[in-house]
Amino acid sequence: MGEAGYLHGSCLCGGIRYRAALPVAYASHCYCTMCQKQHGAAAGSYANVASAGFVIEQGAALVTEYASSDEGRRGFCSVCGSTLFWRSTEAEDRIAITLGTLEPAYTGPVDHELHLDTKPVWLPVK
Ligand SMILES: [Zn+2]
Ligand SMILES: [Zn+2]
């Protein structure tokens, strides 16, 4: 998955490009209300990887980080708004990169669902 053991990603406007070294520890859909607000969607979807292997290859100056709580910071593109990553201030060795920004598309399993108590009732298609 990914050449040379990396995942690659970019934002919607293409100004930011990043890579993240494999392996993915786990991938998740997070239904917490902060992820819903930031993504404007039912969930934030992430691959959890080692922060040591995460590199912004292009457009680092465009990355803005928002501290959404004492525990977490959310990185996004200041031009197009694409959400790029979530990082914990308590576990700085890990970073959660957003599945929707990966190119090519993520093909690994998503094996966790987080904050099911706030999973939107409108999510299932009827
Ligand atoms: Zn962008
Ligand atoms: Zn969340």
Number of helices: 1
Assembly type? single chain
Strand order within the widest sheet?
6-7-8-9-4-3-10
Principal-axis shape equals: globular
Number of strands: 10
Domains (count): 1
Q: What structural category do the secondary elements indicate?
A: mainly beta
Beta percentage is 35-45%
The largest sheet, given as strand count, sense and whether it forms a barrel, is: 7 strands, mixed
Low-confidence stretches: none
Which molecules are bound in this entry? zinc ion
CATH class category label: Mainly Beta
Task: Provide structural commentary.
There is one protein chain. The protein has 126 residues and is mainly beta. It has one domain: Metal Binding Protein, Guanine Nucleotide Exchange Factor, Chain A (Beta Complex). The chain is built from 1 helix and 10 strands. The strands form 2 sheets. Strands 6-7-8-9-4-3-10 form a 7-stranded mixed sheet. A 3-stranded antiparallel sheet has the order 1-2-5, with no helix packed on it. A hairpin with a 4-residue loop joins strand 6 and strand 7. It is globular, with a radius of gyration of 14 Å. The protein starts with 5 loop residues before the first strand and ends in a 12-residue tail after the last strand. The model has no long low-confidence stretch (mean pLDDT 95). Bound molecules: zinc ion (2 copies). The site of one zinc ion (ZN) has 9 residues, from loops.
Which helices and strands occur, and which strands form pairs?
Layout: E1 6-10, E2 17-21, E3 26-30, H1 33-39, E4 44-50, E5 54-58, E6 63-67, E7 72-77, E8 83-88, E9 94-98, E10 112-114
Bound molecules: zinc ion (ZN) (2 copies).
